[in-house]
Amino acid sequence: MRKNKFLSLYKFITFAISLMFWTRGSVFAADDPITVVDNLTNFIFSFVRAIGVIFTGFGVMQIGISIRSHDATQRTDGFLSVGGGIIMVFIQPILDIILK
User: Fold this and answer.
1) Which pLDDT score is estimated for 14?
2) CA-based torsion, 54, 59, 62, 67: positive or negative
3) Are 57 and 89 in contact (CB under 8 A)?
4) Which of 10, 17, 51, 81 is deepest in the core (most CB within 10 A)?
């Protein structure tokens, strides 16, 4: 019964994230080359951010399953996935802080 709930939640989250990609506005080239590079950079960072959200959600799911089954290795993998996902979500502000 719980597996169906996790599967339904996973399908909903996957659909929501794919919907975000489908509803993104078009990126048109401008006269200024800096604007073009900024648009491409924003697209790449939004893609990385979406992957980070997926990793974070997967890591939280792994932590929950590991607590139920008392599996320390899976718990460690879950915390690593959450940490990596959070870093991916906040990569643009991190790079702005480092480069300034």
Assistant:
1) 85
2) negative
3) no
4) 81
Determine the pLDDT at residue 39: 85
The Cα 74–Cα 46 span in angstroms is: 28
The single residue listed with the structure tokens 């929501």 is: 16
In single-letter form, the type of residue at position 97 comes to I
Measured in degrees and rounded to the nearest 5, phi and psi for residue 29 equal: -70, 140
Taking a C-beta distance cutoff of 8 angstroms, is the pair 17, 54 a contact?
yes
Structure token digits, residue 16:
């929501």
In whole angstroms, what is the distance from residue 9 CA to residue 17 CA? 12
Q: Is 71 helix (H, G, I), strand (E, B) or coil?
A: coil
Question: Could you tell me the mean pLDDT of each successive run of 10 residues in the chain, 100 residues long?
Answer: 71 80 63 80 91 92 90 90 93 89
The vertex-90 CA angle with 40 and 55, nearest 5°, equals: 95
Give the number of other Cβ atoms within 10 Å of residue 56's Cβ: 19
Q: For the whole model, what pTM was predicted?
A: 0.62
